[in-house]
Known about the structure:
Blueprint: H1 2-18, H2 32-36, E1 38-41, E2 46-47, E3 50-51, E4 65-68, E5 73-79, E6 85-95, E7 100-106, E8 111-121, E9 126-129
Antiparallel strand pairs: 1-4, 2-3, 4-5, 5-6, 6-7, 7-8, 8-9
Amino acid sequence: MDKIKFIVxxxxxxxxxxxxxxxxxxxxxxxxxxxxxxxxxxxKIEKNGVLSSxxxxxxxxxxxxxxxxxxxxxxxxxxxxxxxxKTAEGTWEFGNKKKTIIVNAKGQNQxxxxxxxxxxxxxxxxxxxxxxxxxx
Length: 136
């Protein structure tokens, strides 16, 4: 009987702890590094919770594609005029106990150094947030 109580308490504790994370599903056997690898397209940009047409730089505009590789390489495919695709190259890594993604990349006209806080992350959606107060 005591074993059953331990399992139930462990399950409840696991459920409460996992609900504090940004990941969906809250439990996965696949490592976070493996799940974030691949291509992620920017579908929308919000500013103060409202859909915005502004973007901090060409590399971070709608339709840009961020590619994260296991080796720590980050490629950002973007277009300044919606026709010629360019690529910014750099690195990525997790920070703050895997609650942030740190991206450093060099585009055609500027260097991008951002710390994105992960708000939501699932197999189909990655929602990062960045404080862009320092961007002109």
